[in-house]
Design goal:
Blueprint lengths: L7 H13 L18 H12 L1 E2 L19 E3 L6 E5 L11 E2 L13 E3 L22 E3 L6 E3 L12 E3 L4 E3 L14 E3 L11 H5 L7 E3 L21 E3 L21 E3 L6 E2 L13 E3 L4 E2 L15 E3 L6 E2 L13 E3 L4 E4 L13 E3 L4 E2 L6 E2 L15 E3 L12 E2 L7 E3 L6 E5 L11 E3 L4 E5 L12 E3 L20 E4 L18 E5 L6 E3 L8 E3 L4 E4 L10 E3 L4 E4 L2 H4 L11 E3 L4 E5 L12 E3 L4 E4 L13 E3 L4 E4 L13 E3 L4 E2 L5 H7 L6 E7 L2 E6 L1
Length: 691
């Protein structure tokens, strides 16, 4: 379910458009008023709370009498009855709910909306009693950790308009119960094992009101014929990530309202069935990651409403059809990783709605006019309206000059992963006033601009790794004010870091493999920071609690680890990877590890650290890899580290430890994923533990 990259805006728009057709409208307080629900319903809610495990204190508001103002509860403002329960815990909201789903839900006779998605009811089956909630119009149990068979009793919910039970551990062998959901408009059964439910087309065909059907990654391998199609109001159909082989879509031609079709990541082969050319309402067509062959059919030009095409990673060959000029509504096109050849049709330049085009990894020939890559073996005329162009990993070779012109609407430029060479100057960027994403890493361009160059763009992502930007630190970065990801690794900078750099609004920083020198007073609130293999000096800097990966290795930082580890934060530290290796850090390891409980990887080898391992290292329960070799550490492993059962690699070699290896070490490391673990160079002898 990862590859939904192109046309996501289109798909989401279709999704919400479909949801908008569902007439689930309440006059709700929804947690914003002091409306008091009935005592009977309040007691039912309290019993529901008692059955739940609420480690994140999500239900802390469920105390006072005004239960209609409780978090997740919605009441009818007129009748005061509880009609809505939304206890969905989205992944970014923190700890999810667990425990049991209480039968006290049956005491909420007026309940119409129930959302328990994104929770952790691990090992729990979908309760059969939910089928008795016959007033429900909306039920979402997706990603809630539920397992086992989907109960047939759900078919009793005859008022249900929205049903989402997507979950990787659910299965069902028969879908006959679906036919009772006569007013169902949205059905999402993603990841439910339907391999034995061969009657799925017949079951869905009974749902005359169905508008959205999502059966992604359900183990389906056949599409049975339908003599008569009754669910012709379908607008969104997602059958991606299944095991279909033969592209027999005879009854698809009856889906006259279909706007979004996703058949990606299956095993389809052969030509695209011409049946699809009858779906004239289509706006989004996803066929990526299949084995379709032959040419792209001319009849697709009949689909004049198409906004998004994604045919990535198939075996399409031949030339791009000239008839593509009829698809004037196109916004996003991905034809990459096929065997297309010839020239890019000039008609493609007439598509002023086109914002993203990816033709990489084909056999197209000659040189682009819009983005002139010279020997890139791609040719054609490109629209001045184009805002995304990707030519990464194409068949470029040899020295290449770059000219980007006539492209004032360009917002996304990706030419990464080539072996392009040449001089790039400020004039090449002169028209790129709307550029937001520049991904040009893994090329050999040389940027030649003056110290006073003021780029016309404000970037959100800048990746120029392996360019020649040095030897001076690029002063023009100071002009970038937007929140940005920055990668200027291995760009031959041999200069002092400029003080203003640390004030930039950066989410991601990669300055690795240069020869940048100077001190680092404090680090930005970036999530990932890579300053490794430079010439930085001075004490270790303070870091933000928002940083989860920090690499300061192979510099000349000196002094104690205390500044970075013993700083006082009011927020939880999320750091999971810390690399301080290859510096000249000294002193004892500070006893401050209790603040870094999420740390998984610690590298501080090749320094001059002394003293014992502190007992607070036992707080690192998530620690998997510990590298402290080639220091002057002494003593023994602290008993507190017995709790570090996630450890799979420990290297304390070339230190001054003494005594015997504790017995618990072997037991703990047996939990690791490595069958053989180099543990310790202990008293100048290697200790090897094997499972």
């Amino acid at each position: 379910m990862e590859r939904k990259s192109i046309g996501d805006v289109v798909v989401l728009w279709l999704w919400f458009l479909s949801l908008a057709t569902i007439n689930i409208e309440f006059s709700l307080s929804d947690g914003t008023s002091d409306v008091i629900c009935s005592a009977r319903e309040r007691r039912a809610l309290q019993r529901i709370k008692q059955g739940l495990v609420d480690q994140g204190n999500y239900l802390s508001s469920w105390t006072h009498e005004a239960c209609c103002s409780w978090k997740g509860i919605g009441c009818d403002n007129i009748t005061r009855h509880v009609v809505k329960i939304n206890l969905s815990c989205e992944p970014m909201e923190g700890a999810s709910l667990g425990g049991d789903i209480s039968t006290s839900l049956l005491d909420l006779n007026h309940l119409q909306y129930l959302d328990l998605s994104w929770n952790s009811f691990e090992g729990l089956q979908i309760p059969e009693f939910l089928g008795s909630l016959t007033g429900l119009r909306y039920l979402n149990l997706s990603n809630a950790g539920l397992t086992g068979d989907v109960p047939r009793q759900l078919g009793k919910q005859s008022s249900l308009q929205y049903l989402d039970i997507g979950g990787i551990s659910l299965d069902t062998e028969n879908l006959d119960w679906i036919s009772s959901l006569s007013v169902l408009e949205v059905l999402d059964m993603s990841w439910v094992d339907l391999n034995k439910a061969s009657n799925w087309p017949q079951a869905m065909n009974t749902l005359h009101s169905l508008s959205v059907l999502i059966l992604s990654d359900c183990g389906l391998d056949s599409i049975n014929p339908l003599p008569v199609v009754n669910f012709s109001s379908l607008t969104v159909l997602d059958l991606s990530e299944n095991q279909f082989v033969s592209p027999t879509f005879d009854w698809f031609s009856s889906l006259g309202s279909l706007a979004s079709l996703d058949l990606s990541s299956n095993n389809f082969h052969g030509p695209i069935p011409t049946t699809l050319c009858n779906l004239t309402a289509l706006r989004s067509l996803h066929l990526f990651n299949n084995s379709f062959t032959s040419t792209i059919p001319d009849c697709l030009s009949h689909l004049t409403s198409l906004e998004s095409i994604d045919f990535l990673s198939n075996n399409f060959n031949g030339i791009l059809p000239v008839s593509i000029r009829n698809l004037t509504s196109l916004v996003a096109v991905d034809l990459s990783n096929n065997a297309l050849e010839g020239e890019i049709p000039r008609s493609l330049g007439e598509h002023c709605n086109l914002q993203r085009l990816d033709l990489s990894s084909n056999k197209l020939v000659k040189g682009l006019e819009f983005l002139d890559l010279g020997a890139d073996e791609v040719s054609g005329h490109f629209s001045k309206c184009l805002s995304v162009l990707s030519d990464g990993n194409s068949s470029s070779s040899g020295p290449t000059s770059v000219s980007v012109r006539g492209s004032s609407s360009l917002s996304y430029l990706d030419m990464s992963g080539n072996s392009l060479k040449g001089i790039v100057s400020g004039k090449h960027f002169a028209n790129l006033t709307r550029l937001k994403y520049l991904h040009a890493s893994s090329n050999s361009f040389t940027l030649q601009v003056g110290s006073d160059w003021n780029p016309p763009f404000q970037l959100e992502i800048l990746k120029m790794g392996y360019w020649q930007l040095g030897p001076l630190f690029p002063a023009w970065l100071q002009t970038q004010k937007d929140q940005m990801d920055l990668d200027i690794s291995r760009v031959s900078i041999k200069d002092d870091i400029l003080s203003w750099f640390w004030s930039l609004n950066l989410d991601y920083i990669n300055l690795a493999d240069n020869r940048i020198y100077g001190t680092v007073p404090s680090l930005p609130t970036a999530y990932q920071i890579y300053l490794c293999s430079n010439k930085f000096t001075g004490p270790l800097p303070r870091i933000s609690s928002k940083t989860f990966s920090l690499d300061l290795s192979h510099n000349s930082f000196n002094g104690s680890l205390s500044p970075i580890l013993c700083q006082q934060n009011n927020e939880e530290n999320i750091l999971w990877s810390l690399d301080l290796s290859g510096n000249i850090l000294s002193g004892e390891l500070p006893d401050c590890w209790a603040s870094w409980t999420l740390l998984m990887v610690l590298r501080s080898q090749n320094n001059i650290l002394t003293g014992h391992l502190p007992s607070s290292m036992g707080s690192l329960l998530q620690l998997r890899s510990l590298h402290l070799h080639n220091n002057s550490l002494s003593g023994t492993l602290p008993p507190s580290m017995k709790g570090c059962k996630s450890l799979s690699f420990v290297d304390l070699s070339e230190n001054e430890f003494s005594g015997s290896i504790p017995m618990w070490v072997g037991k703990n490391l047996s939990y690791g994923s490595c069958p053989t673990i180099k543990l310790i160079y202990w008293e100048y002898s290697y200790g090897i533990l094997s499972r």
